[in-house]
Amino acid sequence: MSFETVEPVMRKEIESWFAQRDKNILLKFEKSSRGRPGEIQIRYSGANKGAHFKFEVDAIFTLTGQTENSPSYLKSINVNIDKRDFMK
Fold first, then answer.
1. Whole domain around residue 15: which residue ranges?
2. The whole model's pTM is what?
3. How far apart are CA 80 and CA 78, in angstroms?
């Protein structure tokens, strides 16, 4: 898929995964940003039975060209949760 369409698809898949995993988790998209070409960072906040947390999803894609329309392939994806952003 072209790199310009990756971010909305990633958001949809992340939200879908959490909805299937635990229906009591409420997710709220906060922001997304792009780093170097092929990098995307998405931040969410969530809540579940009194616990509040934030997490970030970092993804790196390999681009086959030099533009945003270039086809891209997922190289790595990381989910990071900072314990300082977890409150009960």
1. 3-85
2. 0.83
3. 6
Per-residue pLDDT tens, the chain, 88 aa: give them.
888 889 999 999 999 998 898 888 999 999 999 888 889 999 999 998 888 999 999 999 999 888 778 889 999 999 998 888 888 7
Please count the structural domains in the chain. 1
Q: How far apart are CA 23 and CA 33, in angstroms?
A: 27
Contact 3, 61 (CB under 8 A): yes
Q: How many CB atoms lie within 10 A of CB 78?
A: 10
List of residues 6+ apart from 81 with CB closer than 8 A: 53, 54, 55, 56
> Which residues does residue 87 pair with via DSSP β-bridges, in sequence order?
52
